[in-house]
Amino acid sequence: MTQELFETHRFERIALPDADIALLRRLDLHDDSGTLLDELIATIPWRQDPITLWGKQMLQPRLVAWHGDPGLSYTYSGLRHEPQAWTGTLRSLKSLVETAAGTAFNSVLLNYYRDQNDSMGLHSDDEPELGANPVIASLSLGAERVFVLKHKSRRDLRVYKLPLPSDSLLVMKGPTQANWKHGLPKERHACGPRVNLTFRNVLR
Question: How far is residue 68's CA from residue 88's CA, in Å, rounded to a whole number?
């Protein structure tokens, strides 16, 4: 990410070793984020896929959807998917995120956290389809949730907790996925819905 982009969009660097992470606390969406949240919840073809953890099959603790350019194929959480077509709203959000992040994307993985009980376990976005040192741009809409990062090998580093407010854009790039895992734990207190859009570039 260039210094010009930081100055233009007011990104803050997250000072973690072996990583390149920056946060824009508010991306100008040119629309009411509450309206966007309601639209995405109502119109996206959400799924709740089964996954296997510790030898047991269960449903993912959130709803998911994947949209992107035709001809892409992507494997995540052990499942292989073909993308849904871009909607007009998703294309508009993609354009805004691409301008802010200075990177072109061809797909977006959406996660819908319905309340405090939905979550995402620790993982890295390091699938082969994303290539080496991928750029992941994560846009949050709705309830503020705590995003956590844990280094893969350095036990001297504590888990880093980063609250992500609505309209915020988190950009992870460079060696981040190779060295860190990230996730979204359950909340102890009640909270409203949140939709997270993680824009990425899948290699053909």
Answer: 12
